[in-house]
Amino acid sequence: MSAFGWLAQPAVLPWVALAFGLCIGSFLNVVIHRLPKMMEREWQAQCAELSGATAAPVAAPRYDLVAPRSACPACGARVTALQNIPVFSWLALRGKCAACGVRISVRYPIIEIAAGLIAAYAAWRFGPSLAALGATFFGWALLALAAIDLDTQLLPDDITLPLLWTGLLINLAGGFVPLGTAVIGAVAGYLSLWLVYWTFKLATGKEGMGYGDFKLLAAIGAWLGWQKLPLVILLSSVVGAAVGIALIVFTRHGREKPIPFGPYLAAAGFIALLWGDYITRHWLPILG
Hints:
The chain is mainly α. 66% of the residues lie in helices and 0% in strands. It starts with 12 loop residues before the first helix and ends with a helix.
């Protein structure tokens, strides 16, 4: 056994993946928070350029996924390394900033735990393989997209497009489905929601979803192939309709206020990747 061969043992690999996934979850929290702000800054710069602004641009401080260092949004206190340990730091601080006592959202540890569980389950399910790496990356990307869409109703191209191309590359290497099936899945995923969008818009004069949803379903199709797209659309539509009705009935969510569809597509895509064959064989025949 090599020096690191023990990491691939079935009793060890999921725990290693869990620890690594928790750390990636901490980074995903940064992506979820900062990427929309980075996009907004880029849009503002493009608008200023198109408007022909002649004033000298004010040098803005660097703002990306690396800089500046994480800090409390209320008091500006820097988050130290000990305060940035996934989940455990949040528990030790009792969900509050160490400097000013302002509450830290519980979503931070939830994202970290979700990222860790995604990695651990993929490692347990697929073992040390390309499929495990692919399923983990797929789950992490969908997790980030779902959270960003919930916050901003945006599905950034910076995530959806790399997710699409990665799905095709994974399947080129024999990941989940044949490459031809993956290519057709990407095309069918995009066109299916594109047709729904235009049908709804021509019938009602309103936009029922955004273009980011088309790209997300195209990315899911690139990973899963065209055969699983009906299952993904069915799962996301049923769950989305149920949640939407519940929001309107129990929280007085206005009918005119849009509900992001990305989180339901993301959840359905990950479920279909892991359990799509089982659901198709055992549950769909019962329902239909």
